[in-house]
Amino acid sequence: MEKRHFTGFYNSYVERIYKFVYFRVSGRKELAQDLTQEIFLKAFEAFERYDPAISETSWLYTIARNHIINYHAKQHPGVTLEEIEDSSWVSVDTREAMATKQEMQSVWEALKRIPKEDADLVRMKYLEGWSFEDLVKHFEKSSGALRVQAGRALKKLKSKLMQKYTLV
User: Fold this and answer.
1) What are the residues whose beta carbons fall under 8 Å from the beta carbon of 7, sequence distance 6 or more?
2) Alpha-carbon distance 38 to 22, whole Å?
3) Which of 4, 82, 83, 139 is deepest in the core (most CB within 10 A)?
4) Residue 118: what pLDDT?
5) Cα 83 to Cα 60: distance, rounded to the nearest angstrom
6) Quick check: helix, strand or coil at residue 105?
7) Are the C-beta atoms of residues 54 and 97 closer than 8 Å to each other?
8) How far apart are CA 81 and CA 69, in angstroms?
9) What backbone torsions phi and psi does residue 166 show, to the nearest 5 degrees?
10) Spatial separation of the C-alpha atoms in residues 29 and 31, rounded to whole Å
């Protein structure tokens, strides 16, 4: 695509990419802002080579995911790629960030206890901000089917979260 179209592209995706990054850096706003800016710089540099036959969303999230993995790899040399991909939690020294981290950790742990496809759908739709229309290509299901699945997945997630806090 032509670089003159980048502003509209940026405006369409900046909030979603920021959320995607934010949840992967334990809610550290400034770091999420910096990484988001770097991701869009990479996207801008590659924008003319972007193939419109590929989903814009998938293309951009691939850039974002790889950039975050590279960031974590540089910060934690010697940690395996698998550990980096599985880890969303980095130590933060403030009480508020720790509370947020604990809440986020609870959600991530609950997501691990529901079927993977449901967890992916909840993560992508509600934490990363994908639209149902974008998710159609990823999950190869209709948007209506995904809406139903998302509702059921949220109920499963809520149940898992409630189990954590229910005394038996």
Assistant:
1) none
2) 14
3) 139
4) 93
5) 23
6) helix
7) no
8) 8
9) -90, 130
10) 6
CB atoms inside a 10 Å sphere around CB 83: 12
* CA distance linking residue 115 with residue 127, whole number of Å: 17
Q: Are 111 and 117 in contact (CB under 8 A)?
A: no
pTM: 0.56
Distance CA 114, CA 155 (A): 10
Q: What is the per-residue pLDDT for 141?
A: 94
Q: Tokens 């850096």 correspond to what residue?
A: 25
pLDDT at 20 over 50: yes
pLDDT tens string 32-62: 999 999 999 999 998 888 877 777 888 898 8
pLDDT reading at 76 higher than 80: no
Which residue ranges form the domains of the chain, and what is each CATH number?
1-90 (1.10.1740), 91-168 (1.10.10.10)
